[in-house]
From TrEMBL:
Its EC number is 2.3.1.275. Belongs to the PlsY family. Probably interacts with PlsX. SMART domains: G3P_acyltransf. The keyword Repeat does not apply. NCBIfam families: glycerol-3-phosphate 1-O-acyltransferase PlsY (TIGR00023). It catalyses: an acyl phosphate + sn-glycerol 3-phosphate = a 1-acyl-sn-glycero-3-phosphate + phosphate. GO terms for biological process: phospholipid biosynthetic process. It comes from Sulfitobacter sabulilitoris. One of its GO terms (cellular component) is plasma membrane. Pathway: Lipid metabolism; phospholipid metabolism. This is Glycerol-3-phosphate acyltransferase. It is a multi-pass membrane protein. InterPro entries: G3P_acylTferase_PlsY.
Amino acid sequence: MPIIETSAALLGLWAIVAYLLGSVPFGLILTRAMGLGNLRSIGSGNIGATNVLRTGNKTAAALTLLLDGVKGAIAVLLARASTGEDAAQVAALFAMIGHCYPVWLRFAGGKGVATFLGVMLALAWPVGLGCCIAWVLGALAFRISSMGALVGAAASTFLIILLGYGTMLLLGITLTLLVFWRHRGNIARIKAGTEPRIGEKRDAPSS
């Protein structure tokens, strides 16, 4: 879709709305509601589906993955429907920032993979679908879930170009860099050969 110029004030409003939506910590909410303990004291303390899976509850982890993606998609779709494509892109960025750096959790949030996939599916579903496929294939090929997340994020840039969504290229690169930044610890462990593999006790889909 072409981007139609929108006032800075309206874009700022959508940035705030999307940030607040993105910062809803579904992992924490679900684990507390399901009596699984304090997620902050489990595993890495991360609020994403990876750490929720370490509680041993696959349903809670799946719901966290789904809801973290849905909140990003909702932010994008609402902004697009009410304002336009430029607002949708602003919403995508700030939903991601909200998930990764929620103010109520002292800016210590998740790694953004589920929210990344959610906003990509909402912005351009062919790109989002391609990212999901790349995520799964990357995880299966390397047997490391964080590698799947990194492959899925990196694929977005190529998919945006190949599928003709050039107006969201800058956003796609920015979101990919954010995912890589949030996974910098995983990247260091991958290089050191100490990152857990799928099937090992500590492993789970990265989010």
